[in-house]
Amino acid sequence: MSTQTPINDKIAPKDLSLIALFSLIFGSMMGSGVFDIPQNVGHAAGVIAVLISWGITTIGMLSLGWAFVYITRCRPDIQSGIYGYARYGFGSYVGFNAAWGYWLSALLGNASYLVYIFASLGNFAVFKFLGQGNTFFALISESVLIWIVYILISRGIREASLVNILITTVKFLALMVVVILFIYGFHWSQFKVNFTPELHLGSLMTQIKSTMLVTVWDFIGIEAACIYALRARNMQDVAIATTLGVIVVLVIDALISILPFGIISSSAISKLMTPSTASVLVIISGNLSAELVRLAVVISVIGALLAWMMLATNVLYVAAEDRTLPKFLMQLNERNVPRNSLLTSSIILQAFIIIAYFTQSVYLAMIQLATSLILVPYLLSALFAFKLFITDKKVEFIILLKGVLAVIYAIWLIYAGGLKYLAFASILYLAGMLFYVMARLEEKEPVFTSIFEKAIFTILIILAILSVYFWLRGNLSLY
Description:
Elements: H1 18-29, H2 33-42, H3 47-74, H4 81-90, H5 92-121, H6 136-154, H7 157-185, H8 188-194, H9 204-218, H10 224-227, H11 235-258, H12 266-270, H13 276-285, H14 287-321, H15 339-359, H16 363-390, H17 397-416, H18 419-431, H19 433-442, H20 451-472
């Protein structure tokens, strides 16, 4: 952390246990995606491609998770998570972009969650007036929920994390029920029928790539414990929570996406209604279990909303404490919550929801853009881990292999996430420059301290200009 004296005399308490850290990871990763993963993978890929994709994802995510754990163990002094890895590895300006991109990604993801929550409620007869989450009543409801979450977090990070633990428990139990019923309804004969190449979906590589787009979103949040390392009771808990979170989510996601191929045909999977896990359960055990899953979906996504708002608030705080963002963002309230970071995050999320309402932005576009924004910080973290063990005096082959795999997988995620979304992300990255300049002026330091930083800024300007140009010409679209 910065050696400068903080402007606050309050210090963030070490009040998050291993269970709380695991709940942050599980809660942020297990949002809406897991309940829709059967249809999301099945509409563009056959079972062969899905199996290969999960093999790649398992190796890649374990490697990326290892990168976070490796940094945590080698540099326990860096307690600012994914932002800190970028800053200490590649300088203040790169660190700022990691924090800014992560923050925007969290808020865009939360905007998509809000739409999803009320679209799911709209499926119940009593809430039909909510439509698909894009009506005026849905906008009002989404706004109310934003400020309920604001009040909850402002009453204390520990208190909010306890609520998140409760929601995570409900979510975990619901997913266990889904997995058990899927196993019960699984038939090997049906699986063998589906185990034929789905040629109408394109080449095997095309199918694998389409499946990877889904898994990218489902694993966003792998770094959650690292983000809150500053408040962890024990840094070892951060490493354990990260490893355990990756393994548990991998197993659950893989089972829920693969098992339906042994229950119904591939073509039927591609046509399932949202949430597709509930649609599969109707076939296995009737409507009651499906309705319970739909209710669990709403609870689960509210939990993800809470977890990501906590993460968004904290990343602004730690970046401000390091003087990478303006000082006002590190001010704490009487409950040791970064009040201005929380308020700023809530206001911007409210703005995203209003923009989504008037532009009728779709759920998928928001999550794709959110994914692209966060993948750059992931790559920077993998590169920092690689840098750490390369500079070590003893480089072991296994460690080297894990590091190389983590970097390759992070690059693959950026490619699979869609380059057009990365183009739009460049505009949003550039938009945050005002905050960085403010922070540098407060410290009376030059905006850029090296040719490397100037080069990055120049490349960002060029990409943003090209993106706007092609967008205005109609050659580039979010949809």
